[in-house]
Amino acid sequence: MRINATKMSTPIEEKIDQKLKVRSGMVTVSDGKSKPIPMRLHLSMEVLKLQREDLEAANHNKPPLDAKERMVQITRQKVGGLGLSIKGGAEHKLPVLISRIYKGQAADNCGQLFVGDAIIKVNGEYITACNHDDAVNILRNAGDLVVLTVKHYRAAKPFLQKCEKEEKLDNAANGGMEDGWVSPSRRSGSPRCGHSRHSSNASSTSLSTHDKKWIDVITVPLMMAYVTRYIFGTDKLRRNAFELRGLNGARTGVIHCDDSAILSQWLKYITDNITGLTHLQMKLYNRNFEGGERIEYMGWVNEAVSNSNQPWQSYRPRFLALKGPDLLLFETPPCNIGDWSRCALTFKVYQTMFRVMKESENVDERQHCFLAQSPGKPPRYLSVETRQELLRVEAAWHTAVCSAVTHLKSKTFPVTYNGRIARLTLEWTQGFTLSLDGVGEIIWRYKFSQLRGSSDDGKSKLKLHFQEPDSIAIETKELECSQLQNLLFCMHAFLTAKVAAVDPTFLTSTTP
């Protein structure tokens, strides 16, 4: 996003705060309708903040326009002293002027002293008649808490800054360290030309992005937050923009980046933090659930919703979880253990078909889509934000299916075989077992590994093709089942679990 043809985004800066990475950078933000305004993004491990510059604080850090005397209290630091340099003195027929303020040191931190301030008093004692060296000694011996009476001379500032540049060039040419009275331990000689010199890479007192004061405008917690590039409820991608919505209802608005590279960086950093916090929450929840009820996945998806009043479908966010044998779709994420038992939409994973859609099968411009279909319920067409997230869902699905089947152990369906009422049982250890209803007499049994194929009429008839042991002969068994789709989905679940049991790498084969 450009405003007046000027780039508003800045590269993302990183720093370490209590051993954790904190990132920040300039972007523009809008409500999706009005003109975007510049703001700063500040990303920590747990929250994303939108910040604006504190103009009042910035004005406080500008030299005063009038020339009134001011009293400033400053606390000397152990390293760096008062954090300023002086020029002038009575021998030069000049006041004692602050010529440099060192970033991050005492004078800079107080925010009330400026290059061009003349020091009139130190702790109430006049120094206007002092020469340069005497002024240095008075400042050096003024104690830890120093009260300066100063008066700003605007005309002196350009001269002082010019001299500072010349000193830096002179010092660089001599390859030596500047000396001064700010930090006595660094002193290597007396000041020359009647003024002090310092070793420092400090910049001038004009405010950089680092120096600016920032006010938090919006704070969005990242725990189970929802981030999307799509215009809400549609299949339309925003150009180089995204939004974030927090569990507490806080929203960022639309965050605009100048180019796709910065957009990708911000999305990766934010998504990584959300994923990390979600995994942590999963671990905390799983302490309360037994092995067969473990949570394998939690995250936001978008569900397609058909609307009879409009020629297109819309999308709504859903919070998807895979817990034990269940696929759950929440309106809002579960915030406590009790919420897990209050989900309105629940599907058994061993009775649900999960299928990743090919790009050519997508119904609109939404990408990274999959289908969850369970007998007796309308299919759920869902999408996620990235290919990587889709692979995570798919891998978690296979893990959930394997866990559910191994805990379920067997599932029986009523069937008709050769005109007789029977039961077909899928057993984790035995495979397919057909027995007569009531008496329990076993008619035939085959291992899962013996199944070579199947076919059905989509209604009730099913053919199972088994290979006989130690033979290439194929035996076909014809059944009728009133719960045909349920049986087929359950067969698929058992076969998937068996493949994973034989080849554990199957569960990780879909990960990026």
Indicate the topology.
Blueprint lengths: L1 E2 L2 E2 L5 E5 L2 E11 L6 E7 L3 E7 L1 H6 L8 E7 L8 E6 L4 E8 L4 H5 L6 E6 L2 E2 L5 H9 L4 E8 L3 H19 L39 E8 L4 E3 L12 E5 L8 E3 L3 H27 L8 E11 L8 E10 L2 E5 L14 E4 L4 E4 L12 E5 L6 E4 L3 H22 L1 E8 L2 E8 L3 E6 L5 E5 L4 E6 L4 E7 L6 E7 L3 H19 L10
Antiparallel strand pairs: 1-2, 3-4, 4-5, 4-16, 5-6, 6-13, 7-12, 8-9, 10-11, 10-12, 14-15, 15-16, 17-18, 17-23, 18-19, 19-20, 21-22, 22-23, 24-25, 25-26, 26-27, 28-29, 29-30
Compose a concise summary of this entry.
With 512 residues, the chain is α+β, with helices and mostly antiparallel strands. The chain has helices at 55-60, 106-110, 132-140, 156-174, 260-286, 387-408, 484-502, and strands at residues 2-3, 6-7, 13-17, 20-30, 37-43, 47-53, 69-75, 84-89, 94-101, 117-122, 125-126, 145-152, 214-221, 226-228, 241-245, 254-256, 295-305, 314-323, 326-330, 345-348, 353-356, 369-373, 380-383, 410-417, 420-427, 431-436, 442-446, 451-456, 461-467, 474-480.
If you had to describe this structure to a student in words, what would you say it looks like?
- This protein folds into four domains: 2-52 and 214-263, PH-domain like (Roll); 62-186, Pdz3 Domain (Roll); 288-406, Pleckstrin-homology domain (PH domain)/Phosphotyrosine-binding domain (PTB) (PH-domain like, Roll), CATH 2.30.29; 410-508, Pleckstrin-homology domain (PH domain)/Phosphotyrosine-binding domain (PTB) (PH-domain like, Roll).
- The strands form seven sheets. Strands 3, 4, 5, 6, 13, 14, 15 and 16 form an eight-stranded antiparallel beta sheet that branches. Strands 20-19-18-17-23-22-21 form a seven-stranded antiparallel beta sheet. A four-stranded antiparallel beta sheet has the order 7-12-10-11.
- The protein has helices at residues 55-60, 106-110, 132-140, 156-174, 260-286, 387-408, 484-502; strands at residues 2-3, 6-7, 13-17, 20-30, 37-43, 47-53, 69-75, 84-89, 94-101, 117-122, 125-126, 145-152, 214-221, 226-228, 241-245, 254-256, 295-305, 314-323, 326-330, 345-348, 353-356, 369-373, 380-383, 410-417, 420-427, 431-436, 442-446, 451-456, 461-467, 474-480.
- The chain is elongated.
- The protein is of the alpha+beta class and 512 residues long.
- Strand 4 and strand 5 form a beta hairpin.
